[in-house]
Amino acid sequence: MARRHLLIGGGPGAVSAAEAIRGADAAAEIILVSADPHGYYSRPGLAYYLAKEIPEKRLRPFAPAEFTGLDFTWLTDRAVGIDPAGHAVTLENGGELAFDRLLIATGSTAVPARVPGAELDGVVKLDDLDDARDIIRRSADAKNAVVVGGGITALEIVEGLRAHGVHVDYFMRQDRYWRNVLSELESRVVEEELRIGGVRVHPFTELARIVGRDGRVVAVQTGDGTQITCDLVAVAIGVRPRIELAKAAGLACERGILVDEYLRTSEDDIFAGGDVAETADPVTGRRTLEVLWHSAVHKGRIAGLNMATQPVHAYEEGPSLNITRLAGLNTTIIGAVGAGKDADLEGLSRGDSQTWSELGEAVLIEAQADGARIRLEIGERAVVGAVVMGEQALSFQLQELIEARADISSVAPRLKAPGAPVAELIGSCWREWTARHA
Amino acid sequence: MSSVSWFESDREKYVTLATAWVLPEPRRCVQCGVCSFNCPMDIDVRRHVWRNEPVVDSRCLTCGECVKRCPRGLLRFEPIAAGSQVRDPERVG
Description:
With 438 residues, chain A is α/β, with parallel strands linked by helices. Helix content of chain A is 26%, strand content 29%. Chain A folds into three domains: 4-109 and 240-308, FAD/NAD(P)-binding domain (3-Layer(bba) Sandwich), CATH 3.50.50.60; 112-237, FAD/NAD(P)-binding domain, CATH 3.50.50; 321-436, FAD/NAD-linked reductase, C-terminal dimerisation domain (Enolase-like, domain 1, 2-Layer Sandwich). In chain A, the strands form eight sheets. In chain A, strands 3-2-1-7-19 form a five-stranded parallel beta sheet, covered by helices on one side. In chain A, strand 11 (167-171), helix 6 (184-196) and strand 12 (200-202) form a beta-alpha-beta unit. Chain B is an alpha+beta fold and 93 residues long. Chain B has a single domain (3-92), classed as Alpha-Beta Plaits (2-Layer Sandwich), CATH 3.30.70.20. The relative contact order of chain B is 0.24. In chain B, strands 1-2 form a two-stranded antiparallel sheet.
Protein backbone atom coordinates (compact mmCIF):
# COMPACT_ATOMS: atom_id res chain seq x y z
CA MET A 1 0.00 0.00 0.00
CA ALA A 2 1.25 3.49 -0.86
CA ARG A 3 2.71 5.45 2.03
CA ARG A 4 0.92 8.69 2.90
CA HIS A 5 3.10 11.75 3.50
CA LEU A 6 1.54 14.76 5.13
CA LEU A 7 3.41 18.07 4.87
CA ILE A 8 2.39 21.01 7.03
CA GLY A 9 3.51 24.30 5.48
CA GLY A 10 3.43 25.98 2.10
CA GLY A 11 6.96 27.38 1.81
CA PRO A 12 10.21 26.13 0.29
CA GLY A 13 10.70 23.48 3.02
CA ALA A 14 7.40 21.71 2.31
CA VAL A 15 7.52 22.10 -1.49
CA SER A 16 11.11 20.80 -1.71
CA ALA A 17 10.13 17.86 0.46
CA ALA A 18 7.23 17.09 -1.89
CA GLU A 19 9.62 17.13 -4.86
CA ALA A 20 12.09 14.84 -3.07
CA ILE A 21 9.39 12.40 -1.99
CA ARG A 22 7.95 12.20 -5.48
CA GLY A 23 11.43 11.70 -6.93
CA ALA A 24 12.06 8.77 -4.61
CA ASP A 25 8.63 7.15 -4.56
CA ALA A 26 6.35 7.38 -7.59
CA ALA A 27 3.47 5.69 -5.75
CA ALA A 28 3.48 7.73 -2.53
CA GLU A 29 0.47 9.80 -1.57
CA ILE A 30 1.50 13.39 -0.77
CA ILE A 31 -0.80 15.91 0.90
CA LEU A 32 0.37 19.44 1.67
CA VAL A 33 -1.60 21.52 4.16
CA SER A 34 -0.94 25.26 4.12
CA ALA A 35 -2.76 28.05 5.93
CA ASP A 36 -1.50 30.66 3.45
CA PRO A 37 -4.33 31.21 0.94
CA HIS A 38 -1.90 32.39 -1.76
CA GLY A 39 -0.14 29.10 -2.36
CA TYR A 40 3.58 28.87 -3.05
CA TYR A 41 5.47 32.08 -3.77
CA SER A 42 8.93 33.52 -3.22
CA ARG A 43 9.04 35.08 0.22
CA PRO A 44 12.36 36.89 -0.49
CA GLY A 45 10.78 38.13 -3.73
CA LEU A 46 8.33 40.19 -1.67
CA ALA A 47 11.13 42.77 -1.26
CA TYR A 48 11.28 43.27 -5.05
CA TYR A 49 7.48 43.30 -5.28
CA LEU A 50 7.38 46.01 -2.62
CA ALA A 51 10.08 47.96 -4.45
CA LYS A 52 8.00 47.80 -7.68
CA GLU A 53 10.61 45.71 -9.49
CA ILE A 54 8.33 42.78 -10.26
CA PRO A 55 4.56 42.39 -10.45
CA GLU A 56 2.84 40.12 -7.95
CA LYS A 57 2.19 37.34 -10.44
CA ARG A 58 5.96 36.86 -10.89
CA LEU A 59 6.32 35.80 -7.26
CA ARG A 60 4.98 32.35 -8.12
CA PRO A 61 7.79 30.17 -9.44
CA PHE A 62 5.72 27.27 -10.70
CA ALA A 63 2.95 27.07 -13.23
CA PRO A 64 -0.07 25.08 -11.96
CA ALA A 65 0.83 22.31 -14.45
CA GLU A 66 4.18 21.80 -12.77
CA PHE A 67 2.53 21.21 -9.42
CA THR A 68 0.12 18.84 -11.11
CA GLY A 69 3.16 16.99 -12.44
CA LEU A 70 4.29 16.37 -8.87
CA ASP A 71 0.96 14.66 -8.28
CA PHE A 72 0.21 15.91 -4.81
CA THR A 73 -2.80 17.41 -3.09
CA TRP A 74 -2.59 21.00 -1.83
CA LEU A 75 -5.08 21.75 0.94
CA THR A 76 -5.59 25.34 2.05
CA ASP A 77 -6.34 24.77 5.70
CA ARG A 78 -4.66 25.14 9.08
CA ALA A 79 -3.33 22.19 11.02
CA VAL A 80 -4.43 22.71 14.63
CA GLY A 81 -3.40 19.47 16.30
CA ILE A 82 -1.03 16.54 15.87
CA ASP A 83 -1.57 13.14 17.44
CA PRO A 84 1.85 11.46 17.14
CA ALA A 85 0.70 8.12 18.58
CA GLY A 86 -2.43 7.99 16.42
CA HIS A 87 -0.55 9.29 13.35
CA ALA A 88 -3.20 11.91 12.63
CA VAL A 89 -3.44 15.68 12.15
CA THR A 90 -6.55 17.72 12.99
CA LEU A 91 -7.51 20.55 10.61
CA GLU A 92 -9.16 23.86 11.51
CA ASN A 93 -11.98 23.40 9.02
CA GLY A 94 -12.83 20.07 10.54
CA GLY A 95 -11.70 16.61 9.78
CA GLU A 96 -8.63 14.61 10.49
CA LEU A 97 -5.90 13.40 8.18
CA ALA A 98 -4.00 10.22 8.89
CA PHE A 99 -0.31 10.00 7.96
CA ASP A 100 2.49 7.50 7.74
CA ARG A 101 5.16 10.23 7.74
CA LEU A 102 4.67 13.85 8.72
CA LEU A 103 6.77 16.94 7.96
CA ILE A 104 6.35 20.10 10.00
CA ALA A 105 7.60 23.09 8.00
CA THR A 106 5.49 25.85 9.50
CA GLY A 107 8.09 28.60 9.05
CA SER A 108 8.49 31.59 11.31
CA THR A 109 6.46 34.60 12.26
CA ALA A 110 7.32 38.23 13.01
CA VAL A 111 7.84 39.19 16.64
CA PRO A 112 5.35 41.95 17.50
CA ALA A 113 6.42 45.22 19.10
CA ARG A 114 5.81 45.34 22.83
CA VAL A 115 5.02 49.02 23.24
CA PRO A 116 1.77 50.81 23.97
CA GLY A 117 -0.14 51.32 20.72
CA ALA A 118 1.27 48.23 18.96
CA GLU A 119 -2.29 47.09 18.19
CA LEU A 120 -3.26 50.30 16.34
CA ASP A 121 -4.37 50.32 12.72
CA GLY A 122 -1.29 51.32 10.72
CA VAL A 123 1.24 49.10 12.50
CA VAL A 124 2.59 46.75 9.82
CA LYS A 125 5.05 43.88 9.37
CA LEU A 126 6.41 41.86 6.44
CA ASP A 127 5.84 38.15 6.92
CA ASP A 128 3.88 37.14 3.86
CA LEU A 129 2.12 38.24 0.69
CA ASP A 130 -0.87 39.64 2.60
CA ASP A 131 1.52 41.86 4.56
CA ALA A 132 3.23 43.08 1.37
CA ARG A 133 -0.16 43.89 -0.17
CA ASP A 134 -1.14 45.68 3.02
CA ILE A 135 2.01 47.86 2.98
CA ILE A 136 1.48 48.72 -0.70
CA ARG A 137 -2.19 49.56 -0.15
CA ARG A 138 -1.42 51.79 2.83
CA SER A 139 1.50 53.46 1.04
CA ALA A 140 -0.93 55.02 -1.43
CA ASP A 141 -2.25 57.37 1.30
CA ALA A 142 0.68 57.45 3.72
CA LYS A 143 3.09 60.39 3.83
CA ASN A 144 5.41 59.38 6.65
CA ALA A 145 6.44 56.04 8.11
CA VAL A 146 8.61 54.99 11.01
CA VAL A 147 10.54 51.72 10.66
CA VAL A 148 11.97 49.97 13.71
CA GLY A 149 14.11 46.86 13.82
CA GLY A 150 17.14 45.49 12.05
CA GLY A 151 18.55 42.91 9.69
CA ILE A 152 17.39 42.50 6.13
CA THR A 153 13.62 42.83 6.61
CA ALA A 154 13.80 46.32 8.10
CA LEU A 155 15.64 47.59 5.04
CA GLU A 156 13.35 45.71 2.65
CA ILE A 157 10.45 47.63 4.17
CA VAL A 158 12.40 50.92 4.10
CA GLU A 159 13.21 50.47 0.40
CA GLY A 160 9.66 49.41 -0.40
CA LEU A 161 8.16 52.44 1.32
CA ARG A 162 10.61 54.78 -0.41
CA ALA A 163 9.71 53.24 -3.78
CA HIS A 164 6.10 54.24 -3.05
CA GLY A 165 7.10 57.80 -2.19
CA VAL A 166 6.67 57.51 1.57
CA HIS A 167 9.09 59.49 3.78
CA VAL A 168 10.85 57.16 6.20
CA ASP A 169 12.35 57.62 9.65
CA TYR A 170 14.44 54.58 10.54
CA PHE A 171 15.12 53.99 14.24
CA MET A 172 18.15 52.08 15.52
CA ARG A 173 18.54 51.34 19.21
CA GLN A 174 22.32 51.53 19.12
CA ASP A 175 25.00 53.40 17.23
CA ARG A 176 24.86 51.49 13.97
CA TYR A 177 22.99 49.12 11.65
CA TRP A 178 23.18 45.30 12.15
CA ARG A 179 26.18 45.49 14.44
CA ASN A 180 26.51 41.75 15.13
CA VAL A 181 26.95 40.90 11.44
CA LEU A 182 28.40 43.95 9.67
CA SER A 183 31.65 45.74 10.46
CA GLU A 184 31.48 49.37 11.49
CA LEU A 185 32.62 50.43 8.03
CA GLU A 186 29.91 48.31 6.35
CA SER A 187 27.22 49.66 8.66
CA ARG A 188 28.29 53.21 7.82
CA VAL A 189 28.21 52.50 4.09
CA VAL A 190 24.64 51.16 4.38
CA GLU A 191 23.50 54.07 6.56
CA GLU A 192 25.03 56.58 4.13
CA GLU A 193 23.24 54.89 1.20
CA LEU A 194 19.98 55.12 3.16
CA ARG A 195 20.54 58.84 3.76
CA ILE A 196 21.33 59.41 0.08
CA GLY A 197 18.02 57.66 -0.65
CA GLY A 198 16.20 60.20 1.51
CA VAL A 199 15.81 58.11 4.68
CA ARG A 200 16.20 59.85 8.01
CA VAL A 201 18.37 57.51 10.09
CA HIS A 202 18.07 57.86 13.88
CA PRO A 203 20.79 56.08 15.89
CA PHE A 204 20.30 55.56 19.65
CA THR A 205 16.55 55.90 19.19
CA GLU A 206 14.06 53.67 20.92
CA LEU A 207 10.40 53.38 20.05
CA ALA A 208 8.62 54.05 23.37
CA ARG A 209 5.00 54.42 22.30
CA ILE A 210 2.83 54.50 19.22
CA VAL A 211 0.33 57.32 19.40
CA GLY A 212 -3.14 56.82 17.94
CA ARG A 213 -6.26 58.77 17.22
CA ASP A 214 -9.57 57.02 16.55
CA GLY A 215 -7.72 53.72 16.55
CA ARG A 216 -5.21 54.75 13.88
CA VAL A 217 -1.50 55.58 14.05
CA VAL A 218 -0.78 59.32 14.01
CA ALA A 219 2.69 59.51 15.59
CA VAL A 220 5.36 57.73 17.58
CA GLN A 221 7.10 58.79 20.75
CA THR A 222 10.77 57.99 21.24
CA GLY A 223 12.55 57.10 24.49
CA ASP A 224 13.59 60.72 25.07
CA GLY A 225 10.02 61.96 24.60
CA THR A 226 10.37 63.28 21.05
CA GLN A 227 7.20 62.88 19.01
CA ILE A 228 7.37 62.17 15.27
CA THR A 229 4.23 62.39 13.14
CA CYS A 230 3.59 59.35 10.94
CA ASP A 231 0.82 57.31 9.30
CA LEU A 232 2.58 53.96 9.42
CA VAL A 233 4.84 52.10 11.82
CA ALA A 234 6.67 49.08 10.39
CA VAL A 235 8.06 46.60 12.88
CA ALA A 236 10.91 44.25 11.88
CA ILE A 237 12.48 43.25 15.19
CA GLY A 238 12.93 39.60 14.32
CA VAL A 239 11.09 36.35 13.76
CA ARG A 240 10.24 33.35 15.87
CA PRO A 241 9.83 29.78 14.57
CA ARG A 242 6.20 28.65 14.66
CA ILE A 243 6.57 25.73 17.07
CA GLU A 244 3.25 25.90 18.96
CA LEU A 245 1.76 22.95 17.08
CA ALA A 246 4.81 20.75 17.72
CA LYS A 247 5.01 21.79 21.36
CA ALA A 248 1.34 21.00 21.97
CA ALA A 249 1.92 17.56 20.42
CA GLY A 250 4.68 16.90 22.95
CA LEU A 251 7.60 17.06 20.49
CA ALA A 252 10.94 18.16 21.96
CA CYS A 253 11.39 21.89 21.29
CA GLU A 254 13.70 24.64 22.40
CA ARG A 255 13.87 27.76 20.20
CA GLY A 256 12.80 25.55 17.27
CA ILE A 257 11.76 21.91 16.92
CA LEU A 258 14.73 19.76 17.89
CA VAL A 259 15.81 17.43 15.10
CA ASP A 260 18.59 14.89 14.65
CA GLU A 261 20.95 14.81 11.68
CA TYR A 262 18.21 13.15 9.60
CA LEU A 263 15.82 15.98 10.48
CA ARG A 264 13.71 13.61 12.56
CA THR A 265 11.99 15.07 15.60
CA SER A 266 11.64 13.27 18.93
CA GLU A 267 8.97 11.14 17.20
CA ASP A 268 10.31 8.65 14.63
CA ASP A 269 7.73 9.32 11.92
CA ILE A 270 7.64 13.07 12.30
CA PHE A 271 10.25 15.28 10.60
CA ALA A 272 10.80 19.03 10.65
CA GLY A 273 12.27 21.31 7.99
CA GLY A 274 12.71 24.98 7.13
CA ASP A 275 12.89 27.74 9.73
CA VAL A 276 11.37 25.62 12.52
CA ALA A 277 14.01 22.87 12.47
CA GLU A 278 16.68 23.42 15.11
CA THR A 279 19.55 21.28 13.90
CA ALA A 280 22.45 19.86 15.91
CA ASP A 281 26.05 19.40 14.86
CA PRO A 282 26.68 15.65 15.26
CA VAL A 283 30.19 16.25 16.65
CA THR A 284 29.87 19.34 18.84
CA GLY A 285 26.13 19.12 19.55
CA ARG A 286 25.87 22.84 18.88
CA ARG A 287 22.29 23.72 17.92
CA THR A 288 21.53 26.08 15.07
CA LEU A 289 18.56 28.01 13.73
CA GLU A 290 18.53 29.60 10.31
CA VAL A 291 15.92 31.65 8.50
CA LEU A 292 17.38 31.28 5.03
CA TRP A 293 15.64 30.28 1.81
CA HIS A 294 18.36 27.92 0.66
CA SER A 295 18.62 26.18 4.05
CA ALA A 296 14.85 25.65 3.95
CA VAL A 297 15.09 24.11 0.46
CA HIS A 298 18.01 21.91 1.49
CA LYS A 299 16.36 20.74 4.71
CA GLY A 300 13.12 20.06 2.82
CA ARG A 301 14.93 17.90 0.28
CA ILE A 302 16.79 15.89 2.93
CA ALA A 303 13.70 15.44 5.10
CA GLY A 304 11.67 14.40 2.03
CA LEU A 305 14.27 11.81 1.03
CA ASN A 306 14.38 10.36 4.54
CA MET A 307 10.59 10.26 4.71
CA ALA A 308 10.32 8.45 1.40
CA THR A 309 13.08 5.95 2.08
CA GLN A 310 14.85 5.37 5.39
CA PRO A 311 16.45 7.97 7.64
CA VAL A 312 19.92 7.55 6.18
CA HIS A 313 20.46 10.90 4.48
CA ALA A 314 22.21 13.27 6.85
CA TYR A 315 21.72 17.02 6.74
CA GLU A 316 25.14 18.61 6.50
CA GLU A 317 25.39 22.18 7.44
CA GLY A 318 27.96 24.20 5.53
CA PRO A 319 28.89 27.82 6.19
CA SER A 320 25.71 29.85 5.89
CA LEU A 321 25.32 32.02 2.85
CA ASN A 322 22.97 34.78 1.86
CA ILE A 323 23.04 37.35 -0.88
CA THR A 324 20.85 40.29 -0.28
CA ARG A 325 20.48 43.95 -1.04
CA LEU A 326 21.14 46.45 1.71
CA ALA A 327 20.10 49.98 0.81
CA GLY A 328 20.62 49.18 -2.88
CA LEU A 329 24.00 47.45 -2.39
CA ASN A 330 24.26 43.82 -3.38
CA THR A 331 25.78 42.11 -0.37
CA THR A 332 26.96 38.55 0.14
CA ILE A 333 27.49 37.26 3.66
CA ILE A 334 29.30 33.93 4.05
CA GLY A 335 30.35 32.02 7.16
CA ALA A 336 31.23 33.59 10.50
CA VAL A 337 31.50 37.36 10.22
CA GLY A 338 30.33 38.90 13.48
CA ALA A 339 29.69 38.39 17.16
CA GLY A 340 27.26 39.17 19.94
CA LYS A 341 23.71 40.39 19.67
CA ASP A 342 22.04 43.17 17.76
CA ALA A 343 19.89 45.33 20.04
CA ASP A 344 17.49 45.98 17.15
CA LEU A 345 16.59 42.30 16.84
CA GLU A 346 15.06 39.70 19.11
CA GLY A 347 16.76 36.56 17.88
CA LEU A 348 17.02 36.18 14.13
CA SER A 349 15.53 38.17 11.30
CA ARG A 350 14.49 36.76 7.93
CA GLY A 351 17.47 35.95 5.72
CA ASP A 352 19.60 35.56 8.83
CA SER A 353 21.76 32.78 10.23
CA GLN A 354 22.76 32.32 13.82
CA THR A 355 26.20 31.17 12.63
CA TRP A 356 27.07 34.57 11.13
CA SER A 357 27.49 36.06 14.60
CA GLU A 358 29.61 33.23 16.01
CA LEU A 359 33.01 34.46 14.91
CA GLY A 360 35.91 33.24 17.03
CA GLU A 361 39.57 34.28 16.80
CA ALA A 362 40.17 35.77 13.38
CA VAL A 363 42.18 38.42 11.60
CA LEU A 364 40.10 41.09 9.90
CA ILE A 365 41.02 42.36 6.45
CA GLU A 366 39.00 45.06 4.71
CA ALA A 367 39.69 46.21 1.18
CA GLN A 368 38.16 47.82 -1.87
CA ALA A 369 38.70 46.32 -5.31
CA ASP A 370 36.96 46.30 -8.69
CA GLY A 371 33.77 47.97 -7.48
CA ALA A 372 33.51 45.80 -4.38
CA ARG A 373 34.03 46.36 -0.70
CA ILE A 374 35.49 43.16 0.69
CA ARG A 375 35.87 41.94 4.25
CA LEU A 376 37.66 38.73 5.08
CA GLU A 377 37.81 37.04 8.46
CA ILE A 378 40.86 34.79 8.44
CA GLY A 379 41.19 31.95 10.93
CA GLU A 380 44.24 29.80 11.56
CA ARG A 381 44.59 28.45 8.02
CA ALA A 382 41.41 29.35 6.17
CA VAL A 383 39.01 32.16 5.45
CA VAL A 384 36.17 31.58 7.95
CA GLY A 385 33.88 34.37 6.84
CA ALA A 386 33.47 37.10 4.25
CA VAL A 387 31.25 40.02 3.34
CA VAL A 388 31.28 41.32 -0.23
CA MET A 389 29.38 44.52 -1.01
CA GLY A 390 28.86 45.85 -4.52
CA GLU A 391 30.36 43.90 -7.45
CA GLN A 392 29.91 40.22 -6.67
CA ALA A 393 32.46 38.36 -8.84
CA LEU A 394 34.79 37.66 -5.91
CA SER A 395 31.97 36.35 -3.73
CA PHE A 396 31.71 33.16 -5.82
CA GLN A 397 35.38 32.37 -5.26
CA LEU A 398 35.14 33.19 -1.56
CA GLN A 399 32.05 31.02 -1.22
CA GLU A 400 33.96 28.02 -2.58
CA LEU A 401 37.09 28.68 -0.51
CA ILE A 402 35.09 29.09 2.72
CA GLU A 403 32.87 26.07 2.11
CA ALA A 404 35.92 23.92 1.38
CA ARG A 405 37.84 25.37 4.34
CA ALA A 406 40.63 25.73 1.80
CA ASP A 407 44.08 26.20 3.26
CA ILE A 408 45.21 29.71 2.35
CA SER A 409 48.22 29.82 4.68
CA SER A 410 50.58 30.29 1.72
CA VAL A 411 49.07 33.72 0.90
CA ALA A 412 47.89 34.72 4.38
CA PRO A 413 50.96 36.87 5.22
CA ARG A 414 50.62 38.75 1.93
CA LEU A 415 46.86 39.20 2.49
CA LYS A 416 47.51 40.72 5.89
CA ALA A 417 50.04 43.26 4.58
CA PRO A 418 48.82 46.86 4.37
CA GLY A 419 47.46 47.71 0.92
CA ALA A 420 47.50 44.07 -0.19
CA PRO A 421 45.89 43.31 -3.59
CA VAL A 422 43.16 41.28 -1.86
CA ALA A 423 41.07 40.44 -4.95
CA GLU A 424 44.14 39.31 -6.87
CA LEU A 425 45.40 37.13 -4.01
CA ILE A 426 42.00 35.53 -3.39
CA GLY A 427 41.66 34.95 -7.13
CA SER A 428 45.02 33.17 -7.34
CA CYS A 429 44.21 31.13 -4.22
CA TRP A 430 40.92 30.05 -5.76
CA ARG A 431 42.55 29.13 -9.10
CA GLU A 432 45.16 27.08 -7.28
CA TRP A 433 42.53 25.38 -5.17
CA THR A 434 40.25 24.56 -8.12
CA ALA A 435 43.21 23.24 -10.12
CA ARG A 436 44.14 20.93 -7.25
CA HIS A 437 40.54 19.71 -6.88
CA ALA A 438 39.60 19.51 -10.57
CA MET B 1 24.89 56.65 -29.81
CA SER B 2 26.78 56.38 -33.09
CA SER B 3 26.11 53.64 -35.59
CA VAL B 4 29.62 52.30 -35.03
CA SER B 5 28.91 51.47 -31.40
CA TRP B 6 25.64 49.80 -32.40
CA PHE B 7 27.57 47.48 -34.68
CA GLU B 8 30.18 46.84 -32.02
CA SER B 9 27.44 45.94 -29.57
CA ASP B 10 25.89 43.56 -32.10
CA ARG B 11 29.24 41.97 -32.79
CA GLU B 12 29.79 41.38 -29.08
CA LYS B 13 26.36 39.80 -28.84
CA TYR B 14 27.05 37.56 -31.79
CA VAL B 15 30.32 36.40 -30.26
CA THR B 16 28.61 35.76 -26.94
CA LEU B 17 25.79 33.88 -28.62
CA ALA B 18 28.22 31.64 -30.41
CA THR B 19 30.45 30.82 -27.49
CA ALA B 20 28.63 31.32 -24.21
CA TRP B 21 25.45 30.61 -22.33
CA VAL B 22 23.91 31.85 -19.12
CA LEU B 23 24.79 29.64 -16.19
CA PRO B 24 23.08 29.75 -12.81
CA GLU B 25 24.28 29.18 -9.27
CA PRO B 26 21.10 27.68 -7.76
CA ARG B 27 22.25 27.96 -4.15
CA ARG B 28 21.97 31.71 -4.47
CA CYS B 29 18.49 31.70 -6.01
CA VAL B 30 15.39 32.61 -4.00
CA GLN B 31 13.03 32.24 -6.96
CA CYS B 32 12.10 35.92 -6.88
CA GLY B 33 11.41 35.99 -10.63
CA VAL B 34 13.30 39.19 -11.48
CA CYS B 35 15.27 37.32 -14.19
CA SER B 36 12.18 35.92 -15.93
CA PHE B 37 10.34 39.24 -15.67
CA ASN B 38 13.17 41.11 -17.39
CA CYS B 39 13.77 38.60 -20.19
CA PRO B 40 12.68 40.35 -23.43
CA MET B 41 11.92 36.93 -24.94
CA ASP B 42 9.84 35.81 -21.96
CA ILE B 43 12.10 32.82 -21.27
CA ASP B 44 11.48 31.43 -17.80
CA VAL B 45 15.08 31.83 -16.64
CA ARG B 46 14.05 31.10 -13.05
CA ARG B 47 12.97 27.59 -14.03
CA HIS B 48 16.41 26.86 -15.51
CA VAL B 49 18.02 28.03 -12.28
CA TRP B 50 15.76 25.88 -10.07
CA ARG B 51 16.81 22.86 -12.15
CA ASN B 52 20.44 23.93 -12.21
CA GLU B 53 20.52 24.02 -15.98
CA PRO B 54 22.10 26.55 -18.34
CA VAL B 55 19.68 28.76 -20.24
CA VAL B 56 19.40 26.71 -23.39
CA ASP B 57 16.70 28.17 -25.55
CA SER B 58 16.79 29.02 -29.21
CA ARG B 59 15.09 32.33 -28.38
CA CYS B 60 17.84 33.43 -25.97
CA LEU B 61 19.50 36.57 -27.35
CA THR B 62 22.27 36.46 -24.73
CA CYS B 63 21.36 40.09 -24.20
CA GLY B 64 22.44 39.82 -20.58
CA GLU B 65 19.31 41.37 -19.06
CA CYS B 66 18.83 38.45 -16.66
CA VAL B 67 22.52 38.46 -15.72
CA LYS B 68 22.46 42.20 -15.09
CA ARG B 69 19.12 42.34 -13.27
CA CYS B 70 19.43 39.36 -10.92
CA PRO B 71 19.50 41.07 -7.53
CA ARG B 72 21.64 38.27 -6.12
CA GLY B 73 24.18 38.09 -8.94
CA LEU B 74 23.79 34.36 -9.47
CA LEU B 75 23.71 34.35 -13.28
CA ARG B 76 26.81 34.61 -15.40
CA PHE B 77 28.01 34.06 -18.96
CA GLU B 78 30.29 31.07 -19.31
CA PRO B 79 31.87 29.57 -22.40
CA ILE B 80 29.81 26.65 -23.64
CA ALA B 81 31.53 23.42 -22.71
CA ALA B 82 32.50 21.43 -25.80
CA GLY B 83 30.13 18.56 -26.58
CA SER B 84 27.61 19.62 -23.90
CA GLN B 85 24.23 17.99 -24.16
CA VAL B 86 21.55 19.54 -22.02
CA ARG B 87 17.82 19.32 -22.25
CA ASP B 88 15.75 22.41 -22.79
CA PRO B 89 13.37 22.78 -19.83
CA GLU B 90 11.25 25.28 -21.79
CA ARG B 91 10.21 22.44 -24.03
CA VAL B 92 10.21 19.48 -21.69
CA GLY B 93 7.99 21.35 -19.20
